Amino acid sequence: MATVFGIPLAVLFGQVLIGLINGAFYAILSLGLAVIFGLLNIINFAHGALYMAGAFTAWILLNHAGIGFWGALVLAPLIVGLAGVVIERLLLSRIYRLDHLYGLLLTFGLALMITGLFRVGFGSSGLPYPAPAELSGGTNLGFMFLPNYRGFVVAASILVCLGTWFVIERTRIGAYLRAATEDPDLVQTFGINVPLLITLTYAAGVALAAFAGVLAAPIYSVNPGMGQDLIIVVFAVVVIGSMGSIAGAVVTGFALGVVEGLAKVAWPEASSTVIFVIMAVVLLLKPQGLFGKVS
After folding, report:
1. Alpha-carbon distance 262 to 191, whole Å?
2. Among 84, 108, 114, 107, residue whose Cα is nearest residue 199
3. Which DSSP helix (H) or strand (E) runs through 140?
């Protein structure tokens, strides 16, 4: 059997696949964080709880409304996005002109409340959610066996990330959003409803988190704590890529997922901390992040 540095190729490719899957969730979640911070200047600590809410929404749709995975993939982000509209209008809109710390504290409190509500309603144990039958089984690639659903997760995340980047960087509404963050009063004089743009931006950011939650539901058990540990890693990914950078969030998310996966083979004891070590090094050498610009 072929090896690389004494590691069988099948094991190496398997860890790369696991890294890509983790990277897919890192990329989508950090993308949502980057959109919210870059356009609203809010550090959204509730992102992990809303990711969890997306997974629970898919579970509820399946078990109480008979709506399967494909319907949940559309409906869950819309439902959580509507919840985001309520959160932004009632709470976040009141603190935009205050220090970033207020947004962090408010969204941290929201995360605790949302997690607590789901824990009271559903308990702490994991709930199973089946993968769609169309994506059952796997494909033999010769050098490894690729589970179809996990391949779909990677492909879907890439498409969503590229689509989000295109909307923000290459369309008129994206130009309006970027302009509104620089000078909202000037943009409003052109007849553009800036508060509505801000609300929709936050809703889109949390909908991305919910989309990731639906993708995660068949892989991980659906439970109230599923977003707590993940959001810490995602914040590290955003810091490494650069706060507010769309490209940085996507590229860094996938890259660090692969690095983490390979670390589990080369040095298993360090795999849980490798991302934070990279973050520390990046902050020392380039505090604005890998994709950030010196102001």
Report:
1. 51
2. 84
3. strand 138-140
Rounded Cα distance, 72 and 80, in Å: 11
Candidate CATH numbers 1.10.3470, 2.60.40, 3.40.1000, 1.10.10; the one for domain 3-126+146-285: 1.10.3470
Tokens of 293: 């610009």
Residue 39 corresponds to which tokens in the numbers above? 């356009």
Distance, CA of 187 to CA of 240 (rounded, Å): 31
Instruction: Tell me how many helices (H) and strands (E) the chain has.
Output: 11, 4
Nearest Cα neighbor of 229 from 33, 44, 51, 55 is 51
Q: Per-residue pLDDT tens for 210-243?
A: 999 999 999 988 999 999 878 889 999 999 988 8
Quick check: pTM over 0.85? yes
Domain borders along the chain are 3-126+146-285
pLDDT tens for each residue of 61-95? 999 999 999 999 999 999 999 999 999 999 998 88
